[in-house]
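Escalation from tier 1.

The customer reports that the assembly of three entities below gives different structure tokens on two consecutive runs. Tier 1 could not reproduce it. I'm attaching the input and our single run for tier 2 to review.
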Amino acid sequence: MTTQADADIAATAPTRGKGGRGRGPWATALRRLRRSPSAVASTAVLLTVAVLCALAPVYADFTGTDPFRSNLSGKIEIAGEQVAVMQPSTTGLGLGVTPIGPTWNPAAYLLGADNQGRDVAARLLYGGRNSLVISAAATLICLVLAGIIGIVAGFSGGAVDMVLSRILDVLWAFPVYLLAISLSIVLLNSSIALGPITITAGSLLLPIGIIGVIYVPYVARPIRSKVLALRRSEFVLASVGLGLPTHRILLRDILPNVMPTLIVFVPILLALSIVTESALSFLSIGVQPPDASWGTIIQDGQTLLYSRPMVALAPGIAIVITVLALNVLGDNVRDALDPRFKIR
Amino acid sequence: MIATILQRLVQMIFVMFGISVLVFLIFFATPGSDPAARIAGRNAAPETVEQIRHEFGFDRPLPVQYALMMKRLWVTQDLTSFVNRGQKVIPQVLDAVPATISLVTGAAILWIAGSLVIGVAAAAMRDTIVDRGLMILSLIGISMPVFWLGEVMNLVSQSRYHDTWLFSWVPGLGYTPLTASVTGWFKSLVIPWITLAVLYIGIYARILRSNLIEVYSEDFIRTARAKGLSETRIMLRHALRTSLLSFVTMFGLDFGALVGGAALLTEVVFGINGVGRLTFQALQNLDLPVILATVMYASFFVVAANAVVDMLYAVIDPRVRT
Amino acid sequence: MTSWTRRPAMACAVAALIAATAPASAQTREELMAEHRGGTMRLVAHTAAGTIDPHINYTSQYWQLYQFVYDGLLTFKKGAGIEGAEVVPDLAEALPEPQDDGKTYVFKLREGIKFANGDEVTVADVVASFQRIFKVSGPTSGTFYNGIVGADACIASPADCTLEGGVTGDEAARTITFHLVQPDPEFFFKIAVPHASVLPASTPATDVGVDPIPGTGPYMFESYNPNESLVLVRNPHFAEWSVDAQPDGFPDSIVYDFGLTDEGEVTAVQNGQADWMFDQPPTDRLAEIGTQNADQVHVNTLTAFWYAPLNVNLAPFDDVRVRQALNYAVDRDALVGLFGGQVLAQPVCQILPPGFPGHEDTCMYTKDPGTTWSAPDMEKAQALVDESGTKGQKVTVIVEDTVVSRDVGTYLQSVLSDLGYDASVKAISANIQFTYIQNTNNNVQISVSQWYQDYPAASNFLNVLLSCASFHPGSDASVNISGFCDEEVDAKMQAAMTQAITDPDGANMEWAKIDREVMEKAPLVPLFTPKRVDFVSTRVGNFMFSNQFQWQMSQSWVQ
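Tier 1 run:
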């Protein structure tokens, strides 16, 4: 019996743990990446986004507003005139209060205000910080878990594989939002302690954990089939035949060959996590107010879509730019590391 | 073959059982979810709440409650909602299916057509500006969160440009059943179809393109060229046909998941009363019977699609039997 | 009441609008009926409101419909504004005089009234209906009707409920006699609400869910599917017996569709595809409809308030100074803005809503204490917090996952941070927030909630929300969310309720005092009185708004 993965293995010569790495596949891959203009460009975009978001406090200082404090009765000066941040309607029956729109002046309310009279531009930067941190941490968790599960399932085979695969099936078909909703309520008055880590309500660890876990099947399945194929490849069979201990085989033969696949997943997962985080926050399960993420700002903007569309548009555009850059980078990483790898 | 099918069935039952137990346990672990107090209503006397708890059987051990609920869901099929009391759950889910099928099928036709055109065009003009442009567009499609795209579509078609000739035909949000009005049905779904299809057009077009390019390097294409067949014929009759295998596989999985309710965000944004929205509302209300029914329905489709695709694959391509 | 839980409702009386909405009086009722009778009225709502059973459903959405489908012995008058809060005889011939010091009432049943199934209403139906309230464990069975003799036994064992000695009928004399455990000034109100509707004795003693029960009003429910629609048609056996209690209606049928989004509802009404939306128009669209569709908008005051219950048994709000401080610090104008502006809400700093029995304008938590709220007093608030020494403590505000509730919570979080607390806000599903914040096991410090009247009596706010009797630690049904239990105040409330039997005006003055006294202890932060926006299509005429059940849809026409 042969598999698709077997063919893949045959195509990319297996890597052994220590010996013969030198200018191995990693260095080659890096060189390929550096030569690709789209890889360089997308990396530059990502770095710019990251730096801008990191500078959020500086920008908030510059505008002189606190993006986490309601400013419902505040006034700002535009062209020498005092203008209310929250403007009551003056036409017809005078129903409704609308926040100030974009001033296009970086000094204050560049992109206008949200429902609480807070500066959307400043919140966008702070929100980006959370979105990026959450997606990075979730990706890390997902890769570690998926790596372990995929390798164990693929290498052990038999009953262990069977059980792990079914658990992955359950996880894959599980209603994520139910888990998220109830977790966030359970955590309201009790915190979950996982060893040294304590997760409390409103903690960023909550969306991180949820997103990290739900994509495990997505990554673990390809890893499993790759390991399954490796397990039957000649060099692993040889190691087993030589009587090497299992952990050595895993570390020296399996892991280095699985690594490229895991790395290929990094940008893809980052992109997925950002989108998922925004969906969770959009359904008000993720980041909790007054804290912000791109998803929560879109949610704030949803209630202002007709009068102040910029509140929802700006974070969406930020997501599209970031995710697009990640996807372009992802393509390049895949081409560089594992050209025959297919997702799904 | 029969053994494989049986094995798959057992696996499916295992997955559905696992999910329903998990959902059940999570529900009862959530504070404030106690259905007795919510059913009793505001300002109910504690005695009334106790009475309701007893009447609905919430004072019985969890395994018994689980067994009873499963019995009412599958055997007697008279399980009713906790929120809309007296409303049977199974007809509720079945009523929501046509809207979801309408949404998903229309979007599927769009995305298959769209991705075929884009994928084939990009592969045929590989490494030209057209190819690059199409691939960037596909990537942008993949990068947009679907709920945000939906909101923007609403903004454009319902508000900003609703009064222009371009969007004046767009009806208010919501779903019109096919049986009520064919044109109404079509109009109410055009924008949701496009919104849902964009992501998949992006994904499928990219994969189709890379498959086609891969196939082009294989021997039988060279043979075909040597025979003097036209490029169009080679592309459509030979390369495309070979590349469609993985295309069909993916389609099976995605379609199954979407029919199962994965179009939740699209349905919520456009107010379409489908299975996804039903799931979402049940989750918001913590309406356990409906949650259980929709979740098991969804997992059935996800797992079934997986099984069908795996089996098809095994039939078509014997190499893949692992 | 309870009913408005689904989503914030609002409304108000703009002078110009009242003139516009007052029924055209130039023509007589008969002429109007001849001219406008007929047609189908189309209503839309985001979601259905659960069971159709009038003994169980406790939502304003359906109570509004029950007005012209079911009748009790008494009812609230189908009139505009304050008139709608008046109790009038319905199936009973007259309001009975209290006997036995207000512990006994004898009602005489009208003759010739028929249910929609053609059966005549008998004394046995009335008696069976009161037993049914307990047999189905109705939500108010233990709070409204527990004063009837024999109710205790019925609550303990609903299946065998007889109300023996409490509700007895005399077929020959067509009378029904009620015996109460003790005099109750609100008894008439309690039997005028839909939970005391008279239904056929043959109605099953379980929640009927989606299968409508025949009633006696001019309309009957024809079909009900909570995911699609509710259809009302004329009751063929209806003959008008009292214009005040149960007038005939104009439209031939009423179709209530469910499932549109709020935005979709606004568009549907604007395009004339629907005649009215149940839900509050989204704040984002208010300016638009207030300008483009000004003559289709009716704004009316609701007897309700938005408030923030403070848990008096948990730090930091176990310190009265902290509670007062927050009352001083909250900028009610800002909150009014979040709700849609001055036209749609009124800042308040007391419990009884404006225009309610026992309400006297007063505001102690403002810059210049007096009768109305003017501006927050941050200095005083800061001083009180400093004095309490609670600065830096953690406070979590629990809000509903709805736009306005979340906005209010976010604002409160901001104020609490300004006062020096480590504050956060948490939104949970609107459907479980209300039970969650009631249970003391959940240790909720401060939350955002609303209360709408069931009937116009001061006790419906003060006694229900702040008496020891409504505080049940560890239960999900403990409507005294603050956990406020003050024996002195409790005694005064009991006294006022007793006084109300003989001297309602004197009692109301007492209630005003109790209102002030409670506010000194500040177990909650009153925020604002909401007003309701009714957005109707251009073809709707004769819009009439009752303080009790809001728009009287059967009295409006669509052609």
